[in-house]
Amino acid sequence: MKRMGTKLDQILTHTASEVAARKGVADIASMERQAAGHQPRGFAANLRRVAQDKPAVIAELKKASPSKGLIREDFQPVELALGLEAAGAAALSVLTDEAFFQGSLKNLEIASAAVKIPCLRKDFMVDPFQMLEARAHGADAILLIVAAHTDADLKLLRASARAYGLDVLCEVHDREELDRAVQIGCEAIGVNSRDLRDFSVHPETLVELVGAIPGDVVRVAESGIRSGDDMFRLRAAGYDAFLIGESLMRQPDPGAALAAMLGHTVPAGV
Fold first, then answer.
1. Given 85, 109, 187, 222, the catalytic residue
2. How high is the pLDDT of residue 76?
3. Residue 223 annotated as catalytic
4. What superfamily does domain 40-262 belong to in CATH?
């Protein structure tokens, strides 16, 4: 891993310990059978399809974060997932980290089973075992944070995701990380405008980097997207998809908030 001396470093150390513990007691054969029962739904392909006509939103089910604490007290994964799908989300991102984001693999499993759109497992991926976990619990894609890994580790985790039929969203924060992401061949590259050292948001990073993302890769804007204006401005700059979490999760009705951002209403009876 690429050591950063930041909150990310602390999270990665804790995650590696937790994953090792789960792996040590896992029934791999049973998990493989469960994984085989889930057919990945084409995360990147669906984002690309939706983006032909409108902004492709990856709506994030996010209860809490290290920087903001509790974001949504009334957290009902199935209800949220259904509401966001009905509002026009192209995909879901489900936090599965328990210690820092109050997420869980169970949340991923039940949210994924409730919807037809693809689901991203949002976690700190440090071991190929997590790819098996992801597919077994209904994920169609996983996140790789480029800053967290050496190139060798990124290639190993990318290959493991591919072996399980999972797409990869590579998250980058600067040009050097972007160049590394391009080299390992991710289906989608997300530019996160949040600085991992102090969690401040720098929206200008999104505009600075989008032009360097190859045209055959789904371009995803992450962090700080709070309105339809933000989203449509970034779409004009070249982004295909938009990962939106906190600004939706803080709303009384996240589905209605997303529908308003996309400029249409939720179908009656949902």
1. 222
2. 97
3. yes
4. Aldolase class I (3.20.20.70)
Active site residue 116: no
From the list 85, 133, 171, 246, the catalytic residue is 171
Kindly list the domain boundaries of the chain, sorted by start residue: 40-262
In the residue annotation, 60 being an active-site residue is answered as yes
Q: What is the CA radius of gyration of the chain?
A: 17
Q: Compute the distance between CA of residue 4 and CA of residue 17 in angstroms, rounded to an integer.
A: 18
User: 133 catalytic, yes or no?
Assistant: no
> Which residues does residue 64 pair with via DSSP β-bridges, in sequence order?
70
pTM across the whole model: 0.93
Q: Contact at 8 Å (CB) between 249 and 60?
A: yes
Tens digits of per-residue pLDDT, 81-122? Answer: 999 999 999 999 999 999 999 999 999 999 999 999 999 999
